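As a warm-up, study this chain.
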Amino acid sequence: MKTRSNLSAIFLTNIFLMLTYLFASCSSSQTSAYQRAEMLVEAPNFRDLGGYPVSGGKQTVWRKVFRSQSFAALSDSDVEKVKTLGIKTVIDFRDDSEVKKAPSRLPAGVNVVRLPIGVGNNETALRTLQGSASGTPDSAQCVRFMEEANRRFVAEFAPQYKAFFAILLKPESYPLVFHCTAGKDRTGFAAAMLLSALGMSWDAVMDDYLLTNTYLRPQAVMPQTPQQRLPVLRQMLGVQSSYIEAAKDEIEKRYGSIDSYLEKALGVGKPERKKLAKLLLK
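Now compare it with the structure written out below.
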């Protein structure tokens, strides 16, 4: 009887633990979906990089690093939300013409760091594609343009991305957000390198990269685009896996691996990665 009683107790305990785990998993999933994005009404591609699993059983911390599209169209309530999040540093990858055309709306006191990257923005893409022989870009041209832009990020704009990591390595920079106009290409490459440096698998990096297609509203980024042209330009106004894969391919051709690229081109070797892990993992 005593043995049967003990077995019953163990059985009930295991059932309780299993139900607790399942409940926690469901709650965590719902919380993660809620926490990650949909924080700024007029910048829907603003999202948290927290809650991602990395090697070693850890995960990225919430509310320290955000990626985003432009802050030019923020409402008063959006600006107040940025203030509530305690954002200290904003890293802006837009070039001079983009900043002049659409200056950011941010709370007073935020430190804005400009790291201009003059490739991969939508207006440059349109001018380039419209200058083609046909005068009208097709889907294949859009895809090739974005893949080439991602390849150019790797070496041509390594100094900007090296400076980006230098800011990430300073504890006083946080919480911070990095962005461009749409928050998908220049910002997408930056996020991919950061998450890789933290030990995230490439498949998981890709999942974050493709989330832009869930949150970004294309016509909010290019409001003057005629409705009939959107189907052709959608490859440029969203992201495809081939875009960031083109960057990865370029990295492997030039440096052999992402780890080598981080160390040799961006100044993020083992000591720097260890410091990033202390700052951004738990």
